[in-house]
Amino acid sequence: MGLAVVLLATAAFLYGLVSKGCTKPKVLPPYEEIRRPTSTLQACLKEVDRTLYDALYRNGTRERDVFFSRVEPRRTAGEDWEFTEMLVRCKDRRRARRLAELIRKALLEIGKPPVLEMRPRAPHRILLGIRTQGMLTHSIILDFGMGSLSPGGGVRPRVAIVIDDLGYDPVLARGFMELNLPLALSILPRAPFTREVAQEAVRRGIPLMLHLPMEPRNYPETRPGPGALLLCMSREEILKVVDEDLARVPGAVGVNNHMGSLFTEDREKMGIVLGELKRRNLFFVDSRTTKRSVAYTLAKEMGLPALQRQVFLDNRASKSEVRIQLDRLRSIAGRSGRALGIGHPHKETLETLEEDAAWLQKAAQVVPVEALLGEAAKGVRR
Fold first, then answer.
1. Domain boundary residue among 112, 143, 174?
2. Count of C-beta atoms within a 10 Å radius of residue 54
């Protein structure tokens, strides 16, 4: 009798919570491969990045004089990190040397200071190399020549942004849809709210992509979630999974990989996937979760419209870090004419994009992903 009363009371309590509109427990998305628990190396790199930004700020370096020419994913001893190559335009040799000295002193203030190497690279350039834990993690070129480093013709650089991993929080997804930016939304095929988010995006006329799960390194310890492509699958099995996943995201005009650090390195398996996407007149974006990905190169060889990611906006979900990555995206586009960034459904990412939308649209042309495809196909440098 007592147990029955307790059960009835518990049921009534839970019913009261639901009837009052209490939020359901949040369903967490599959483990995102690129965002791992912060390691010692990653913490050091974060500190180096912040130190460099602070040195540039104290030097009075203008935003338009800083260019991230390369942000490249790397993996060492099981740790994922990003190599950064930055070019800074200085007025003359004296100012370049002053900035180099400022950076050197700033790095010495870090608890375990990285090693700074400095040597002339050309008559009008000084090369700074930063070694963190014995590895070359940053290359900084101080250029005091008078040549222009940005695209010619007075045309603003173009950037596109994809938001990944959608399908778990429809409220957050709606927030990205309401931004005054032409984002593309990439939805996981078998998340709890996949169909709801997809239908809302199509209704609003927002470009929609399938975020196709693929086998990561260290599988099965690292799991890509349901609907994933695995290297052990046959051609028929791969095509079946692709067909089923696309059917769950109606209206998708393109595909990008979720995880896939192992799968995207396999030319044969990726060829099957890309061939099917070409048959369906879809495009592909290589999320580049591994430096050795063959996906983008293979897609170009096959004549499939394709792009590759230059920047992850929120490997560390804080507004200050998202702003740093947005600046990287802008500066890479400023050097090459275009750049593609990928973000994730974090509250910090949404708020930063909302707050910085006007700045970003002034610094570059923010365009739909499809607008970059023609340039990529032609190899156009705007």
1. 143
2. 14
Per the domain annotation, does 239 fall within a domain? yes
| Domains held by the chain: number | 2
Average pLDDT estimate for 295-313: 96
- Under DSSP, the state recorded for 229 is B
pLDDT tens digits for 197-255?
Answer: 999 999 999 999 999 999 999 899 999 999 999 999 999 999 999 999 999 999 999 99
- Tell me whether residue 29 is in a domain: no
pLDDT at 81: 82
Cα separation, 292 vs 294, whole angstroms: 6
DSSP 357: H
Sheet with strand 135-143: strands edge to edge: 66-76, 79-89, 135-143, 125-132, 115-122
How far is the C-alpha of 33 from the C-alpha of 264, rounded, in Å? 13
Question: What distances in angstroms separate CA 88 from CA 22, 55, 120, one per listed residue?
Answer: 51, 12, 14
Is the pLDDT at 371 greater than 90? The verdict is: yes
The tens digit of pLDDT for each residue in 333-350 reads 887 889 999 999 999 999
The reported pTM is: 0.74
- 130's enclosing H/E stretch is strand 125-132
10 Å CB burial of residue 309 (0-12, 13-18, 19+) is buried
CA distance 139 to 136: 8
Do the Cβ atoms of 257 and 308 come closer than 8 Å? Answer: no
User: Are 270 and 305 members of one domain?
Assistant: yes
